[in-house]
Specification:
Strand content: under 5%
Distance between the termini: 38 Å
Shape: globular
Oligomer: single chain
Low-confidence stretches: none
Structural class: mainly alpha
Length: 250
């Protein structure tokens, strides 16, 4: 059940000649769509890696009013349909929206631009970093930090040599999970972007546009490229998790 759809798509994509496959997979529109998808997803995953770590740190180490509500709100992107998320982002960041109206005087447009795609990817991938880091942070004993400080280490040395090493595998895993989730995002991106080629057209939306044009072969070729990249990411995540397990056993 898991591999059958992937096998069917791969067989469909390879039903044509290799030259035709390469021509579609490397067409200028497809390359632009890969750029929008993969580069934007990578940038947003790295941003979430920084701010997701800070959020997880605050939620685990500090007590403050409404902490449980804020902690539960992290899961909102998991709960709401992605189309609703896209509609909300497009409304709030439009030129007449709450945030878009504040940015418009500075010439910053978010909705229906690539920046809007990035905002949507940030929104849907943030929980992957936070939820991956929280269990690891809970297992780090505060006594280790106190011992390092008592032995004369500075705050920066304590962070770099005591706290960061056990956190690093979880941070990388969270970034990889967020990146892979952002690469496959369709529901929110199709609403918040203008979906114009060479501007903010993403690869998943390009697949759908090909299907709308009754070009099933072209859609499966683009889909196969996304599938291959996703499989490479999956292998990378498994290698990172294996490294994390070996590190924990030491």
């Amino acid at each position: 059940m898991l591999f059958l759809p992937m096998l069917a798509m791969f067989l469909k994509a390879t039903s044509g000649s290799p030259v035709e496959f390469w021509k579609i997979a490397t067409s200028s529109v497809a390359i632009s769509a890969y750029d929008v998808t993969f580069v934007t997803a990578l940038i947003t995953a790295l941003i979430n890696g920084v701010f997701g770590t800070l959020i997880a740190w605050v939620l685990v180490r500090y007590e403050f009013p409404m902490k449980r509500i804020i902690d539960a709100a992290i899961d909102i992107p998991f709960a709401i349909p992605t189309a609703v998320a896209g509609l909300t982002i497009a409304t709030v960041y439009s030129e007449n929206g709450w945030i878009g109206s504040l940015l418009a005087p500075f010439g910053i447009k978010v909705a229906f631009t690539r920046l809007g795609v990035a905002i949507a990817m940030l929104f849907i991938s943030l929980p992957f970093v936070v939820r991956t880091l929280q269990p690891v942070l809970r297992e780090i004993e505060p006594e280790l930090e106190e011992a390092a400080l008592c032995l004369g280490a500075t705050q920066a040395q304590t962070f770099l040599r005591v706290i960061l090493p056990p956190l690093l595998p979880a941070i990388i895993t969270g970034i990889a999970l967020g990146f892979s989730r952002a690469v496959g995002e369709y529901g929110s991106v199709v609403i918040v972007a203008s979906n114009i080629p060479f501007k903010d057209l993403s690869a998943p939306v390009l697949v759908f546009q090909r299907l709308e044009q009754y070009d099933a072969y072209g859609a499966t070729v683009i889909g196969t490229v996304l599938l291959l990249v996703s499989l490479v990411i999956l292998v990378g995540i498994n290698l990172i998790q294996a490294w994390e397990r070996r590190y924990a056993e030491k």
